[in-house]
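Q: I'm teaching a short session on how sequence maps to structure, and I want students to see two examples side by side rather than one. Could you give me a first protein with its sequence written out and its structure tokens following it? Keep the formatting plain so it prints cleanly on a handout.
A: Of course. Example one:
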Amino acid sequence: MSAFIGVFGLMAFWELLAARRVLATSKNSRWFSNLSITLLNLVVVRWVAPILPLGLALLAEERTWGLLNNLALPQWIALVVGVILLDCGIYFQHVLFHAIPLLWRLHMVHHADLDFDVTTGLRFHPVEMILSVGIKLMMVVVLGPPVLAVLIFEILLNATAMFNHGNVRLHPTADRYLRWLVVTPDMHRVHHSVIPAETNSNFGFNLPWWDRLFGTYRAQPSAGHERMEIGLRQFRDPTRLTLPWILVLPFIRKSSGYALSSRSEKLDHPDQD
């Protein structure tokens, strides 16, 4: 929680000092909705999931469940491999939420934000959050990562999700080199483009390697970062994106072809880095 609050404060301050884009909608209204759903998710997940990944990792270690708990690896190697495998699992989870239309309807809440800043990285539907915790629990049982690896991964995932959703300006040279080590805001912003082919790219949250390895990497948005349109085409009315509306959004609105399995648009020449 200390890491969460610290990174959030740092990113919010950075956005004030060096914003990458001018916001298109009311910041106060968006922040109220996005932070309200974040608090709601904390309550819902705690109520629904009596055991969370860190607790299950302790149990898995005691009972030698999972791959890494049954391999004679040095502790530091198991730690590094555990963090990397968990991150790879989150990459595929993200792809899954784009590939299956029913899951995409939940994930639309995240993409329907009309602007892109640190609070966008916290904006997820409560049902998606519950499913995400369930998937992480399954990964912990199957992989058997060390407890410390799970703790480090959870802190990194939260921190990098806020970092790569930040409306912050990085020098192009710094961004070019950083995106070999971590998903940068300019890299992930492409994923929030209104163009479906760009929405279905750059799925990584923490480590950037998976997109390059599995062919989902796109270097830049076709319209450029200042001119690109954020969000989804069917959700353009800010008054319909307040907290009550985004909670019911998956159940009342169509997904309109954004799901990966029904990709309707494709750029002729993907960007190259």
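Q: Perfect. Now a second example for contrast.
A: Example two:
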Amino acid sequence: MYPGMKTSIATILGFCAVMAVSAASGQTTLKDVVQVDVLDGGMTPRGTYLSALRLTLADGWKTYWRAPGDAGIPPRFDWRKSRNLKELDYYWPAPHVFDQGDMQSIGYKDQLVLPVEISPSDPGGAIHLRGTVEIGVCSDVCIPTTLSIDHKIDRDAKRNPAIVAALAQRPYDRREGQVRTATCRLSPIEGGMRIEARIAMPSAGGREVAVIEPGNAQIWASQSETSRKGDVLTAASDLIHVKHGSFALDRSAVRITVLGHDHAVEIQGCAPG
């Protein structure tokens, strides 16, 4: 099945799920499932501002990481209605892997605090964060939902412990994860290419799942096959362009995240090999 078909089917099932939830209980609403608020974290030494989106989920519900897996729904952000917003960077905490039959999803349960660093266009002006967040939330059923954000950044806010804690939960970088080398071998397959990453690094603990992100939103990556032999972790994934055409892959844009029991490691870029 092609990735576009998966997305369409997931969306259709999600809207059916909304109707099913409503029919099952007149008291169940999306507000009962997920709530969002914005946390302020003050100015950074660089002159940017720390904030965070806090998603609070009902018991038994989860939402998804930026790369949600074949069984997940990817989050989307739209900040076009914001004021004095030049750039916004997300700092995702390390997610959890959820097994769903022969597929997996990747995300968070109970609560997600997603730190964002805001660079204003006018350093001295007020910052108004306004937009929408499209996410999937799942329990026995999955519901795609749109959350509205309308928040004026408190420029005088102090450090926020919840944001500090979320930043501490980010994956290790190459140095912290003791990554010695990371190479990617590419080979053609029907309709795309296969990428095989070989990473020389200590174990992240227990069962390890490597997620390969191509660095191009037009390229879909399949759930990776991950294995380890000694200090070398191997992850392989199929890459297909969403328009089913030929494409080139920039290895420097490839991001590989290894999710283990003890910690996660994020590797930006891989060498030919």
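Q: What should students look for in example two?
A: Point them to this: Helices lie at 3-24, 30-33, 161-168. Also worth mentioning: The chain has two domains: 3-168, 181-272.
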